[in-house]
Structures are given as structure tokens and as C-alpha cells.
Write a structure and sequence with these properties.
4 copies of one chain form a homotetramer. The first copy, chain A, is mainly alpha-helical and 190 residues long. Chain A has 2 domains: 53 residues, Homeodomain-like (Arc Repressor Mutant, subunit A, Orthogonal Bundle); 109 residues, Tetracycline Repressor, domain 2 (Orthogonal Bundle), CATH 1.10.357.10. In chain A, helix 4 runs parallel beside helix 7 and helix 6 crosses helix 7. The longest helix of chain A is centred in the middle third of the chain and has 27 residues. Chain A binds a DNA duplex (31 and 31 nucleotides) through helix 2 and helix 3.
Chain lengths: 190, 190, 190, 190
DNA sequence: TGTTAAGCGAGACGGTACGTCGCGTCTTAAT
DNA sequence: ATTAAGACGCGACGTACCGTCTCGCTTAACA
């Protein structure tokens, strides 16, 4: 008989959440901040989501962008394409901070941990694909795909987060060479 | 002329911080909680640390024993020792969370960025040493040390943070094998 | 559209304020003391009053008690009745202290000064009435009423505040005699 | 052997106290404010005065010149001289406030009560003298001196504290006339 | 098609923690 | 042994959000 939870309110709250994360980082995120920014009442937010984290999860969920696996014909080309696109994300400080905020928040919230997994796998799947194709082509010896992913993303992450800055574009070739050697490619061919 | 910041107060606050993390997790951590638990006044805490995060970082810092570079005679042995000890830290969710908090906070605070650098280099220096020795011994071709560090820590970080759990101890050998191959070691082990 | 500031919360805070003033004097008065005593949250108090003084003013305002002018037929009788009742207030150390606290606080807060005026005039009006009746009856020569008030309250105040103790009941007749003589009554007649 | 409590420090603190009262009013007065303004250390202030109130009282004391009993030859002249000088003190809001603070503090602190008594008697003694001389001269009938004091100070106090402002200089003659009549002077003046 | 229950904005409520200020006590070094 | 300097435990300050609640207004689905 009554009207259902309105989709407009939901969308406004989610948009505001995302806008806040981009502008102020996770520290600026609070139910009341969303209220202020979106014009959606606190009551309404609690009617849609039972906690701030759930709203966060939902907002991030809505913004997962699917990255297709490149297929250039060689592991080297595919890796180059893949890491280049990953670097674009990392090079943007706002996005970098959002990722870190998510990682740290997820460390103490199993619910966020799951949404993190979903976001991460969106990025890891293409790598799995790339590596599997390379194995089929005989470019590299068989390898457990998850381990390969670790090997591709790891150096990028370490570089970005520990050193504070992502690698520059001209450092990429050297990194890829090391990665390929680690994966067992015969010759990274120059 | 006045008395210096007292070491006892500092220690009591740090101990209380750790006790809280152990008993209630990071959610139970607050300046006032530390005050209640330690008997150290809030004002005093603020005299020692300008923010809750700094106290957290300091507590972390105090409880992470500086690991000297192992010297087992071979790159493989050194890496095993090094990564094993790194894993111990990563396996503790509280420390993992603190590291992530530090990384994300540092992303938007230059002051924290420096503290982070200090903590990170505490961990990277031993690796630089290990790698340099391996190069001297001719085990691996010459390599820019920072890049090598990236290659050792990266997979561990990716594993821990992206997948949510650090690698188990029996996965270590395989990871090390990949890392060594990436660094160009002739044959990881016979 | 939201619910209005609740009258219950307001009343509870005001009552607690008054209770504190009576029990501990103005030094015991603080927002947090009111919070503790009333069960009304600090935030709520700040929603109702923008400062501690405003609450104080409001609380005192609510407790102004109207004293009716006695009418015994003679100035001597009226004065006796009036000063006796005034003495009752002064004899209570808690009320005495409250009055002094109010006087001194009002000396640097125009807002409190006004509420003080209201409280004072509640006590002065009856005296004005008494004196005016005495003038009409020809008991005393015409006099500016405010000056007469000064003359009745003054000695009582000086006695109470400077000497530290209010006059005893058996000193009253002599004081009244002096007052009447000052006002110009032919003979205080015994 | 040790040096005694230094008079310079004492003076600097008292001067700073007065400067603060002048610049920021009594609300700006605090031990730490005096410390900041005078350069005299907190320790030193507590060595000289056991509380902020005592410092305040002392500062007041130092800046109130002891007024000797005037001797003009007539009660009327003496009273005029006496009340005029009392009015000067009362006209200064800072001193007025300080007097009230002292009175209210004394109401619940026996130690302060004594200090108050000392300050008060500094002002009452001259009046006692004046009145005794008037009795000797036969100007007024014998009277208990304390009661006379009450009668001189009372109207001034009531005027100043209840009405909020001290009487103006041109109101004084009328007040004195009333006081003299109350004391039983045959004819205040012809 | 008019009724009506639920959604909605607004925001008051009792709370917890924040980071700051001043208190009065204390410790230290320097004169 | 007094002083300037200031750290200490303490407690109140005023603010920000929390999650719950009450309020009228609005609106979509059912009768």
C-alpha cells in the first residue's frame, strides 16, 4: 500500500558518498556528511542501509568498472597494456587514497572485505586470462594463476604504496622484464 | 629547564595502546580509552603525540623489533629468513591494519609520509643488503637495489592486502623461487 | 518539521541548575554538572542555551518569587513585616551566596544584569508601595521612592554582606527605628 | 642564605593582574594569563599567593589607597568627604566586580572571610571615628558604632549593587541628609 | 478515486570521543 | 633556595557524529 523505498534517494546518497570519498577521502565520510551533501535525510539513509559501512560497500559496488583483458598476441604486449592501465588508476592520488582507505577499512570489517574482493577480482581476472593464454602459447611454464597475479600486481603496489609514488611510464619496461623473467618466459626478447 | 617529557608516561600509553588492540581490537582504540587504561592524562598524551594515529604508529614502531639483515651465505637462505619474519608481522591483523592505516593516512599527509618512509626503510634496508651480497657473490646479475626491494616485498604485499590473507608458510618456497627467478638467479635450488 | 525542543528536557536542566546552586553554589555549576544531575545530554543543553550563563539566567528567571506588599496600616508594621521576610532569605547561607554570586556575575554580563534587575525589582516594588502609602497617610514627608528603597535595603545588605551575618531578629526593631527616623517619621513611637 | 621572595616578582604579577583586568576584564584573568603577561613563573605566583583569588585581593588591596578619616569639624562635612571617596571606588566596574567576587567567595570560605574583614574594616574604621567625634560634639545621640557604619555604607551598597550603578555625585547631598536624619542629627543643614 | 500506511525531510534526543584550556602540583636547571 | 620553564593528572569546555526517536508532509498502491 505505501510507496517503496525510492530509487532516487538511494542514488543521491550513493552519489554523494562517492563524491565525498573523491574529495575528502574516507575521513570525510559520515552519515551526516552524506545527509548534508545529498539532501537525503538521515532517517532515509538508515532505512536503506543499516550502517555507514553498508552504504560505503554499496557505493563502491556501484562504481566497479570492468576492465577487459587485452589480447595483443604476446605476454609482453598484454602485460604492458594491463600494467599501463593499472598505473593510470594508481597515478591519480584520489583514486590511490580511495584504494588504500578501502584496504585498511576492509582489514577490520568482513563485509567490506568481501566488497574489496569483488573489486580486486575485477582487476585480477584479466591477468589470469593473460597468463593462461601465455601458458597455452608455451611462452611460460604452467603456473597457479593466483600466484601469477600476485607477481604482476605486487611490484606495482609495493612501488606505489611503500615508495609513495607509482613508477613512471619509462620504468615500466624494466619492471615487466623482471616480471616476465620471474614467470619463466624464455627471453623477454628485446 | 622544565622536566622533559617523561618516558614512563610514554611507555604506559604505548603499553595501554597495545593492550587495547589485543583485547578489543582497533575499534576499541581511542585516546580516552588509552587514558582510562593507562592512567596517563589525555593532555599528556597530546603532549607526546599530536594525533591518535601518531600514537598508533609509535606503538607499532616500538613493538616491531628491528630485524637485522640475515646472512646465511646464499640469496635463497637470506630471502627465506627475511620473508619469514616479514610474514610474522603481516599475519597479525592488528599490525596489518595499522600498516594500512599508516599507508592511507600518509597518502594525504606529508608529515606522516615521512614517518612511513622511516618505518618502511627499516624493512627495506636489510633486503638491499641481501641483494647486494648476492650480486657480489655473482648469484644474480647487477640490479638497482630499490627495484629488487619492490620485487621482494611486492608479492608479499599483494598477497596480504589484495587477497586479504598473507601467504601460508608452505607457500613461501614457491614464492621465493619466483622471486629468485625474477632477479635472475641461475637455478633457485638444485 | 522535526519535533520542537522538548519542554521536559528544558525543565529538567533548569531544575538541576537550581538544585546545584542551592547545594554547591555557583562554583559547583557547570554544564557537565547539570548533565550529570539532570540526565539531560550536554548536546541537548547546548541546543537549548548557547552558553552556561544563558541557562543560569533562564533558571533564575523561572524561580523569581513574587512577594506581596504587606499592609498592616502603619509604616512601622509594614517595614517590620517586609524586613522580617527579607531577613529570612538572607539568613539562609545558600540563598545568600546565590544572591552574591548573581550580583558579581551580573557585574560583567549585561544579560545577567537584566535578570538581576528583574529579581531585585520583585523585592523593591513592595517597599515602594509601603512607602507611598506612608506618604499618603502623612506619616513621612514625600520622598523619591527609589531612594527610600535604598534606605530600607541598604542597612540590611551592609549588615549581611560586610559583617558576614544578617542581623538577628532582636536587632530588627532598632534598625527599623533608625530607618524610620531617616525617612522622617515624626516619632517611631514605641 | 637563600634569597627571600622577590618583591620584583610580586610587583610584576600584581601589575600584570591589573593590566589584564583593564584590557580583557575579569574573564581574561587566570594564573596562566598572569604568567604569560608578566613572565613570572606559575611556581612563583603560587609561592606568593595560595590562590588566584588571593592574588586578585592583593592586587585590589595594593591599588586601593587607605583613606584616613577626614576631620572637617562637622558630621556633614566628614560624611561628604567619606562617601565621595567611597563612590570613587564603586564607580570603577572592575573594582566593584572584585569586591562582589570577594564577598561571594568569602560566603563559603572562612579564610577569605578574614581577608574580607580586613579590607572592610579598612573602610569602616574611619566611619567609626567620624561618628564618635559627632557624638562627642553632641551632634547626634549616642549610637553603637557598627550600626552607624551599617547606616552609612548600606545605602551606598544597595544603590551600587542592586541598581547596578553607583549614585551620581549630585545625588550625594540628599543621601547624606537622609543618613544624618537617621542618625538623629538635629538639623542636617539650615 | 479517495484512503491510508509507509516513505520522506528535518532535526531533537542521549551518548561517546574529540582536541583545547586552565587548574594546582611536581620536577628540573640555572642563577 | 628562589626562579623560569613547563610536564603532569585532572576536569570542564564546546563540537562532531553516532544511532534512535518523533514530527508533519507527501505519495503511491489498494479498496
Amino acid at each position: 500500500m505505501p510507496r517503496p523505498l525510492s530509487e532516487t534517494a538511494r542514488q543521491k546518497a550513493i552519489d554523494a558518498t562517492f563524491a565525498i570519498l573523491g574529495d575528502e577521502g574516507i575521513d570525510g565520510f559520515s552519515i551526516e556528511a552524506v545527509t548534508r551533501r545529498s539532501g537525503v535525510a538521515k532517517t532515509t539513509i538508515y532505512r536503506h542501509w543499516s550502517s555507514a559501512n553498508e552504504l560505503l560497500v554499496d557505493a563502491l559496488d556501484c562504481h566497479i568498472e570492468t576492465v577487459p583483458a587485452p589480447d595483443t598476441g604476446s605476454l609482453h604486449g598484454d602485460l604492458t597494456a594491463m600494467t599501463t592501465s593499472a598505473l593510470e588508476v594508481m597515478a591519480d592520488p584520489a583514486r590511490r587514497r580511495m584504494l588504500l582507505d578501502l584496504l585498511s577499512a576492509a582489514a577490520s570489517d568482513p563485509e567490506l572485505e568481501q566488497i574489496k574482493q569483488a573489486l580486486v577480482s575485477e582487476r585480477t581476472h584479466p591477468i589470469v586470462e593473460i597468463v593462461e593464454r601465455a601458458v597455452e602459447r608455451g611462452e611460460i611454464p604452467p603456473i597457479e594463476p593466483e600466484r601469477a597475479v600476485t607477481f604482476v600486481h605486487g611490484p606495482l603496489m609495493a612501488r606505489t604504496m611503500l615508495q609513495g609514488e607509482p613508477p613512471t611510464t619509462d620504468e615500466l619496461p624494466e619492471l615487466i622484464e623482471l616480471i616476465m623473467r620471474g614467470l619463466g618466459a624464455e627471453r623477454p626478447d628485446t
